[in-house]
Amino acid sequence: MKRSTIFAISLIIGISFFGLLLLQGRIIGSMVKIRKEQFDETVLRALDRTSRDLERNETFRYLETVAQKMNYDASNLPEEVSRETIEETLQLGDTSLLQTPFRVDAQRRQPSKAPKALTLSPSSSLDEANLRFQEFVRNAYLYQKGVLNEVIYTILYNASEMDFRERIDFRLLDTNLRSELEAAGITLNYHFTVLDADGQEVYRCADYSDEGSDYTYTQTLFRNDPSQKMGLLRVHFPEMNSYVLGVANKMIPVLVFTIVLFITFCFTVWLIVRQKRDTEMKNDFINNMTHEFKTPISSISLAAQMLGDKTITKSESMIDNLSGVIVNETKRLRYQVEKVLQMSLYEKGNIRFNEREIDANVVIDDVVNTFQLKVRQNGGTLTAQLDAEDAAIYVDEMHFTNVIFNLMDNAVKYRRDDEPLQLSITTRTQGTNLIITISDNGIGIRHEDLRHIFDRFYRVHTGNQHDVKGFGLGLAYVKGMVDLMHGSIKAESEFGKGTKFIITLPLID
User: Fold this and answer.
1) Which of 12, 53, 424, 445 is the most exposed place for a label (fewest CB within 10 A)?
2) Which domain does 41 fall in, by range?
3) What is the CATH number of the domain that holds 370?
4) Strands 216-221 and 191-195
5) How far is CA 222 from CA 46, 166, 268, 479, in A?
6) Is 101 helix (H, G, I), strand (E, B) or coil?
7) CA distance 436 to 451
């Protein structure tokens, strides 16, 4: 599958997942908003009914007070008026001692004892009697309405003249408020405070808090009174946020599963891309291995043919030369095969690692002396500055030698054509560690390739050119061996200016 196809499919599925997550988020937001609006409307209705109950309770209390005042007690009458006097007066029909403002007003108007509509003269017609009766009913209605309005006005006027604190039974207010909220299906804890018309608190719950304006609701008390006699009820719901967001709990599992699927999809795409990259690198490895093996095999085959060709006169020097070619190319072939086998053993964890104490300066000096000829043949110089006073390390000598050899061999492979190679190796101690630095002035490594150079089969892309041979296993082998030595390695490079490898290994205590 092509990279463009993988990218297109991944993009389509990714956009679909993103759209699904966005849609679910909007649905959750809408559900929370609707739940908040429903909660607001329910609470405001409950507060309105509570306010009406408060006014109704006040009216009932006033009427009870008036009724108690109308029930005269003998102890409240003048001394000259006894209970017997009151009873005799009531038996005679004299109610002057029990007059109320409404009764005095009614007596002042002296309504007729018999409806005038029922008092008909012989000459009166039935229609006239009907009209008079309707007029009587209308007058009676207006009279009763006026009396009722006067009663209501008197109640409100007398009640509003009372102190604001005395007009409210706060315990009864709390009971009514809780009943109204529970009747509306709201069982959340709440706290409330009551303020008068001047904004002064007349009552406050111990746990009342003004934190969060969205959690507080207000209701006007005694709305039928003058504005200077009104009050204000504030109710705070500290758990309202969790109550409103609770509606989203049913959608959270769906959202979580969608996110898990999205993460799984991203991981799958990453695995596919990585697998494709590994496949490409393995194909490149096979191609490079073919080139690497083809050259020594061809040289060995040609040399063997020349030795076996009886038509060619062979001198002793020619035989020595052909024998040397066969030996050298066989070593080269064996070295390449050994590199692949060693990497394979490392991957399986079966690599043999014989650690012993060595002097790193001595081993590096031997590698430098051996590698000096190859550097000179390529027109370069190799310098060594082994300044580490203590270079005793506990490693496998063969693999340590291969690590140094591989790094210097890479410097020769990736040298610049326009400038002679300058390769240097230094050692120094830093605390309890040995620092080995191998630097060159070669072609360098791009920043995007630098983080992949220790990956298996990875080689810096050079287009279709194969002027630099290799399997892409050298640096992976170096990294694996340094890790087994309990050390670390890092690369610093600037494209076009050179590369520096820094190895850190622990010293023997």
Assistant:
1) 12
2) 1-250
3) 3.30.565.10
4) unpaired
5) 16, 13, 68, 85
6) helix
7) 20
Tokens 């005395």 belong to residue: 166
Q: Pick from 148, 149, 109, 116: which is nearest to 131 by CA?
A: 116
Angle, in degrees to the nearest 10, between helices 316-348 and 252-308: 160
Alpha carbon of 301 to those of 34, 328, 333: distances in Å?
Answer: 86, 13, 13
pLDDT in tens, 282-304: 766 666 666 667 767 877 888 88
What pTM does this model have? 0.42
Residue 297 inside a domain? The answer is: yes
Residue type, 322: L
Buried b (16+ CB within 10 A) or exposed e, 21-49: eeebeeebeebbeebbeebeebbeebbeb
What CATH number has the domain bearing residue 297?
1.10.287
Residue type present at position 299 = S
Q: Tell me the C-alpha to C-alpha distance, in Å, between residue 159 and each of 47, 49, 103, 283, 489.
A: 21, 20, 21, 98, 91
As a whole number of angstroms, the distance between CA 271 and CA 40 comes to 51
Counting residues of the chain whose pLDDT is more than 70, the rounded percentage is: 72
CB hemisphere CA count around 193 (13 angstroms): 14
**pLDDT, tens digit (0-9, with 9 covering 90-100), for 50-87:** 888 888 877 777 667 666 665 544 445 444 444 455 44
Are 186 and 46 part of one and the same domain? yes
